[in-house]
From TrEMBL:
Domain ChsH2 rubredoxin-like zinc ribbon: 19-51
Database matches in Gene3D superfamilies: 6.10.30.10
SUPFAM superfamilies registered for this protein in UniProt: Nucleic acid-binding proteins
Residue span(s) of domain ChsH2 C-terminal OB-fold: 57-120
Pfam families registered for this protein in UniProt: OB_ChsH2_C (PF01796), zf-ChsH2 (PF12172)
Protein name listed in UniProt: Uncharacterized protein
Domain of life: Bacteria
TM stretches of this protein: none
Length: 134
C-alpha cells in the first residue's frame, strides 16, 4: 500500500540521521556519548551534560503512551481519521517519539498498546510510523 500523503520534515545536520535512518530498516535515536542517555528530538549536544551526540539503533519496539484521533481534515489530500501517538520506546523510560499509528483502526488504539516501527519512504526521508504488534 502506498504511504499516505504527509507534510515532510525539513532536515538539517542535526535531524537528518533520524529522518534517514529507515533506509537501513533501523530506527536511530540521538544518544549522548558521555552520559549514555537517548534523547529525542535530536539536539546538537546533550541537554543534560553537553556531551557529544551520535545516533544509535534502537529496537523500534514500544508502547503507546498517549494518542489522539484526528477527524478534522486539514488538507484535502490527507485522509481522516488518523492517529497521532506518543510512543514510549523500550530502551529508556521517558524516551518518546511522536508518530502515526498504521495498520490499525483508530478505535482499536489504546494507551499501553504494544507497537513496532515501520517506515514510509518519501524520497530520502523515511518517516517512522508504528503498527500494533501481533
Amino acid at each position: 500500500m502506498a504511504p499516505a500523503p504527509r507534510i515532510l520534515p525539513e532536515t538539517d545536520e542535526t535531524t537528518r540521521p533520524y529522518w534517514t535512518s529507515g533506509a537501513s530498516g533501523q530506527l536511530r535515536i540521538a544518544h549522548c556519548g558521555a552520559c549514555r542517555r537517548f534523547i529525542h528530538p535530536p539536539p546538537r549536544v546533550c541537554p543534560d551534560c553537553s556531551g557529544p551526540i551520535t545516533f544509535e539503533a534502537v529496537s523500534g519496539s514500544g508502547t503507546v503512551f498517549t494518542y489522539t484521533v484526528a477527524h478534522q481534515q486539514f488538507r484535502p489530500d490527507v485522509p481522516t481519521p488518523f492517529v497521532v501517538a506518543l510512543i514510549e520506546l523500550d530502551e529508556q523510560a521517558d524516551l518518546r517519539v511522536v508518530a502515526n499509528i498504521v495498520d490499525c483502526e483508530p478505535d482499536a488504539v489504546t494507551s499501553g498498546l504494544r507497537v513496532s516501527v515501520r517506515f514510509e519512504q518519501h524520497g530520502e526521508v523515511f518517516v517512522p510510523v508504528f503498527a500494533p504488534v501481533d
